[in-house]
Write a structure and sequence with these properties.
Chain lengths: 115, 111
Amino acid sequence: KAGVTQTPRYLIKTRGQQVTLSCSPISGHRSVSWYQQTPGQGLQFLFEYFSETQRNKGNFPGRFSGRQFSNSRSEMNVSTLELGDSALYLCASSLSPAGEYREQFFGPGTRLTVL
Amino acid sequence: DAKTTQPPSMDCAEGRAANLPCNHSTISGNEYVYWYRQIHSQGPQYIIHGLKNNETNEMASLIITEDRKSSTLILPHATLRDTAVYYCILSSSGNTGKLIFGQGTTLQVKP
């Protein structure tokens, strides 16, 4: 079974631009979560989607948004990019949001550099 | 903020057991203890989780104290490939898909 895939793997943007990152979860997984990783702040939760609905949201400004499609694929968008948005953006999928077993499978990430 | 406390770094000799501690004194009754690790430049990888009983799988063992205020992840025979940052995370079954990572423990396995 294929793992979580993220595209693109690397991206360079300039301040003020916007960016869209894509995540394809493992087949059958319906929950997709997004995380931002920076050297200063570590791994931080952005948001989680299940059945096209946002279930949880982290403490990030409104410039960060996401969505999930009916096939469980997810995208996240960052508008008006700032230098501080340079980070590794990780996507994770899990089989179901309910119940005890909620192992998350992480993708390789998208490395975003804002110049 | 993360609700767990871990030592920032630890060393372990290859072939020996690595014991990684985690304090979670404010754990709630419905919170599980999860362990993930992140090898350099890769996405985090799930290791093991537990509620109150000790757990073992092919990767590791998890020992949770009776009062559930602390736990220890045990890698029985550490290899160089176990060098990574290890994260101890609390999460309730009702709080799905949201992992709050702390700073973790950087484990360096040495030959």
